[in-house]
Input
Amino acid sequence: MSARSRLSARDFDALWRLVHELHGVLDPDAFVRFVLSHVPTLIASEITTFDEMRPALGASRHWVAPESAVPLGLMPVWEHVMHGHPVLAYTLRTGDTTAHKISDFSPSPAFRESTFYNEWYRRIGIDHALNASVTASLPQGIVIGLGLHRCRKDFTERDRDVLNLLRPHLVQAYRNSLAVAALTSIVDGRHGGAILLDRDGRVLLATSGACSALAEHFDGSVGSDGSLPATVQAWVDSELRRFGSRNAFPAPSRPLVADVGSRRLVVHLLESSTGPVLHLSEAHPSVPSEAVAAWGLTDREAEVLAWVVEGKTNAEIGVILGAASRTVDKHCERIYQKLGVENRTAAVRQVVEYPSDAAWPMRPTHATRPAAAH
Output
């Protein structure tokens, strides 16, 4: 039986309305509030959480509704038992971010004998959970996702189907909210740009950075009639038609990617209540700034290390940076010394496993370590 056939017409209509409203939420705080308040209207949940978890570090941040359902004094317990969460462990092992129930991995009687249940779920009065992730980084051991929790009645296959249909839209809305939170840093054109469109996909306003990025990566920029370069305009028109159709449940918009040499421009279409917005960003390989400072890397060493992480050879890095291959060799030697490693494989591992705060600009309701004040 397909996921669609398990849903009633009423379910499908409610899901459709929620998805369209979700894509109009372009603020991280509002995104979390929306998820915590609206998803339980589709899938009954006694405690709903949005979670960012790093079990290997014992670090996590959570947004909980109702907030009082999880006493803050219990967070040190969660820090020690989170690695025993069956769905979290499975996601980190496989990279599968689709919806799973606790009971998929452990029958209820056996689960109630586990340390995780007795140390955590029993204390907050929970027996069942349904979880799905919006992102999972296996190298860094990070999972960010949604948790729905109940006391007595387990989640059904209908509940799983609803969450799996909703999940890709949560993924895109999550990314969109972070992109919009960064618009203040790109509005002057330093890191890409933004373009406001009307409902027909014509340009109303574009930052100078956006116009420059279009000209560099596509054949032309914004036309006098408000049109975009042909490739971009065709993509925008297609995405707007597809998402506006009610003939089928829409898939989230995929970004438009354009590569010019070693530079990559990524264009995201964000659907807001006031109209479509294009967010343009140039993707450059980079090392976390806190890691650069901790290791004492120079700007050039950080640049070389970033390309090493991207899998480039020293000769390729030399071409990209306009430097001799032997010069890159010397940079790598100094980098390995500063990182305390012997080869590039170990250096790459150091970078991908370096702990870094997530980009959320809001405070969580619960955390296993003090969250940075954003």
